[in-house]
Structures are given as C-alpha cells and as structure tokens.
Amino acid sequence: MTLTPVRRAESLRESLEGDIATGLYPAGTRLDEVKLASRFGVSRTPIREALIELAASGLVEIRPRRGAFVREISIPRLVEMFEVMAEYEAMCGRLAARRITPEELVALQTAHEACQNAETAGDPDGYFHANQTFHEAIYLASHNGFLAEQASGLSNRLKAYRRLQLRVRNRVASSLAEHQAIVDAIASGDSEAAATALRQHVLIQGERFNDFVSQVSRHQGAGGSSG
Fold first, then answer.
1. Among 20, 35, 49, 106, which one has the highest count of C-beta atoms within 10 angstroms of its own C-beta?
2. Which of 92, 100, 107, 111 minimizes the C-alpha distance to 195?
C-alpha cells in the first residue's frame, strides 16, 4: 500500500528517532537531506518534513544555511527529563481521578483496550501508538490546560526513548499491567493511587530505556560477531 505524504513523513521521523536514540547518528551528526533521501528512496520533501518534526521535538537542531544536526542529550539529562515527566504524569493522574467525566473515562478505557489488543497481537509499535492515546486521555481528563500542554510537550521530546523502552524483553506486558492499575485508580476516584501508579510507570520507562541502551552497547561492542 502506498503511504500518504503525511504518513511517509511520520514513518521517516520514527525511523530517524530510533536511529538517533540508539546512537546510529551520534550527537553533532549532520543529517544530510540528499543522503537520507537516497537511503530511504524518497524525495527530499518528506525528509525535510521529518527533520522539521524532529526539531520541534528537540532531537534535532536546524541551523540556518548549515542544515540539520543531532542535538546532544546525555543519559543523565534523559534521566532528569524522565523524573520531571513522572511528576507531570502523577499530577495529571491525581487531577483526572477527581475530575474525569464519564465520557472521558470511556475514552481512557477504550485506549487501554487498544493497548491490550496490540499486546495480544505482539505489535510493540501498535502498542506505542495506543499508549500515546492512553496518556493523552489522562492529560485531557486532568482539566488543567497548562499542565496538559507541559506534559504533552515533554512527552513529545521523550517520544523516541519511550518507544525504544518497549523493546526491552517483557516490557509491553509489564506496561499493560501498570496501565490496568492506573485505570482502576482513576475509575475509583483514588487520586493518590493514580498519582503513585503513573509516577512509577514513567520512572520504570526511564529505567527500561537505560536497559535497552545497555543491550545495544553490548551488541555494538561485540564487534559484529553475530552473523
């Protein structure tokens, strides 16, 4: 099936996100549009659109007359970002447990069911997209526009890393169980349980991302011994 221009740019962005997060394109690397277009077999237009999206999320810096470069984000910096993200999500969960409407609760449960279906199908990418909808439903249910904007913005900056942590063995199944605890707490109106569940859920994501990075580093350090 032929991808639409929008879906093509999204697919390219996701591929480049993964390449940056795993170190294929280290910090400071210039992302040449011509070379990337050749690599992916596309024109420069969707490449340019993908790079603009990556710049908006903070992974890439576009310098006038010089091009796009990978930003440097150290592991300690990422840990700090996950810590802040955990508190944003905890606040969203606390407020959602108090303020969620019946319609919003249905939307949250529907997103959770989509996550369950993706987990059953063994589809980590499908799970990731359903997971985004799940968390966005909680932001919305907080009924605090400013908090929702801040949480969504930081979530977008961490998107590549939150996606990769799902590749750690058994992480999707564990994430789904954590989601169930979050849904149960919000549905029952237990604001502190919701906050605690969401905080731990995001902190674990940071830990699992570190696990993934360690796995990649060991594999690369093996010097291509697999074959």
1. 20
2. 92
CA angle 36, 6, 68 (to 5 degrees): 35
Of 147, 150, 204, whose CA–CA distance to 172 is shortest? 204
Full-model pTM: 0.76
Which tokens go with 157?
A: 């900056």
**pLDDT digits 0-9 by tens, 78-120:** 888 889 999 999 999 999 999 999 999 999 999 999 999 999 9
For residue 224, which phi and psi values (nearest 5 degrees)?
Answer: 70, 35
Instruction: Give the residue from 142, 36, 47 showing the smallest Cα distance to 89.
Output: 142
Q: Is the dihedral of CA 109, 114, 119, 121 positive or negative?
A: positive
Mean pLDDT of all residues belonging to the chain: 86
Strand partners, 68: 31, 62
Those residues whose C-beta lies under 8 Å from the C-beta of residue 87, and which sit 6 or more positions away, are 199
